[in-house]
């Protein structure tokens, strides 16, 4: 792609995204500009990824197609200082923001009227290049912009365009999601050790069972309970294991926990 992107904030999230964009060839390193108030971050990013560091974001912004805000919420105002003038001359610039809790209406305050804005919640499993990122766009974003957003986010995994109301729920549901899988995997590894397998054997079995089960659902389109039905023979081992979990309200426990996650997310609004 011949487009240029300016990252404002070169922290952990920006680095994960930059590495994905370069790895997938979405942006060439010399088309990626990064501004950060911490000089060591710029040195690190230049050394590792050959991006172009800049201490003059307004100058870099004037030749950018995408300005990507990746600072903490309290730094948004200072990070956007001076950008409004550039954007009023370049309405074609797409402002992308991963800043948590700063909605489209708030971002509009830092842009020129009619500016194209997208909020992005990046996939939390970028290195695996699997997992959904969410994108929420304002009304000025056109089909070409959506394609650009899709191309950028597919370098990190999969992408889902959502309304802003659902975008907030995405944090509670999708971003928290891997925690449930990791905790389940931890439990299975412990159970393996308890059963008499070595930690290494338990780890290997758990990883392949997890990957394989997910692939089976993706391949067949089956509901998980359909797969479980195929495994539970009458009077067999699996139905006893399942019955024990049901008695302890396994599904209800997950639903209750997810409700806590949603409530917490909504309490920030
Ligand atoms: N971490 C996650 O899992 C996650 C997920 C989704 C979204 N987000 C959002 O992504 C954003 C970045 O998160 P992060 O974990 O990458 O934060 P981070 O590691 O703190 O990176 C932000 C960087 O921006 C710098 N900065 C501050 N003000 C600046 C300015 N005016 N111009 C240029 N650079 C500036 C910071 O410097 P100082 O350290 O000196 O302030 C820091 O180096 C946050 O808003 C967060 O809500 C995070």
Notes on the structure:
It is a single chain. This protein has 269 residues and is of the alpha/beta class. It folds into 2 domains: 5-171, Rossmann fold; 177-267, Orthogonal Bundle (ProC C-terminal domain-like fold). 55% of the residues lie in helices and 13% in strands. The protein is built from 13 helices and 8 strands. The protein has helices at 12-23, 39-49, 57-62, 76-80, 83-89, 104-108, 143-154, 164-175, 177-195, 199-220, 224-231, 237-247, 250-267, and strands at 5-8, 32-35, 52-53, 66-69, 94-97, 116-121, 132-137, 158-161. Strands 3-2-1-4-5-6-7-8 form an 8-stranded mixed β-sheet, sandwiched between helices. α8 crosses α13. The longest helix has 22 residues, at 199-220. The mean pLDDT is 95. NADP nicotinamide-adenine-dinucleotide phosphate is lined by residues 8-14, 35-38, 41, 70-73, 75, 78-79, 98-100, 121-122.
Give the termini separation: 37 Å
Report the β-strand fraction as a percent range: 5-15%
Radius of gyration based on Cα positions: 22 Å
- Give start-end ranges of low-pLDDT stretches: none
Helical fraction equals 55-70%
According to CATH, the fold-level topology of the largest domain is Rossmann fold
Classified in CATH, the superfamily of the largest domain is: NAD(P)-binding Rossmann-like Domain
- Mean pLDDT comes to 95
Strand arrangement across the biggest beta sheet: 3-2-1-4-5-6-7-8
> Could you give the order of the helices and strands?
EHEHEHEHHEHEEHEHHHHHH
Q: How many β-strand runs?
A: 8
CATH architecture designation of the largest domain: 3-Layer(aba) Sandwich
Q: Which hetero compounds are present in the coordinates?
A: NADP nicotinamide-adenine-dinucleotide phosphate
Based on helices, strands and strand pairing, what is the structural class?
alpha/beta
């Amino acid at each position: 792609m011949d487009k240029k992107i300016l990252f404002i904030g070169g922290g952990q999230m920006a680095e994960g995204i930059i590495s994905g964009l370069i790895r997938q060839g979405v942006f060439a390193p010399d088309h990626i500009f990064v501004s950060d108030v911490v000089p060591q971050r710029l040195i690190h990013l230049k050394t590792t990824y050959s991006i172009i560091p800049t201490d003059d974001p307004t100058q870099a912004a004037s030749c950018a197609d995408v300005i990507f805000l990746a600072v903490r919420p309290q730094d948004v105002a200072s990070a956007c200082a001076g950008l409004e003038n550039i954007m009023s001359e370049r309405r074609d610039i797409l402002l992308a923001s991963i800043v948590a809790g700063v909605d489209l209406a708030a971002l509009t305050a830092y842009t020129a009227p009619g500016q194209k804005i997208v909020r992005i919640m990046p996939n939390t499993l970028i290195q695996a290049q699997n997992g959904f990122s969410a994108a929420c766009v304002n009304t000025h974003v056109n089909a070409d912009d959506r394609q650009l957003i899709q191309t950028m986010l597919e370098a990190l995994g999969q992408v889902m365009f959502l309304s802003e109301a659902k975008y907030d729920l995405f944090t509670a549901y999708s971003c928290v999601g891997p925690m449930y899988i990791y905790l389940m995997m931890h439990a299975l590894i412990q159970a393996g050790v308890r059963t008499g397998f070595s930690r290494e054997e338990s780890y290997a079995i758990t990883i392949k069972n997890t990957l394989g089960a997910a692939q089976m659902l993706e391949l067949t389109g089956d509901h998980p309970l359909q797969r479980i039905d195929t495994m539970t023979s009458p009077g067999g081992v699996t139905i006893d294991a399942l019955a024990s979990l049901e008695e302890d309200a396994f599904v209800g426990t997950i639903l209750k926990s997810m409700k806590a996650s949603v409530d917490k997310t909504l309490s920030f609004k």
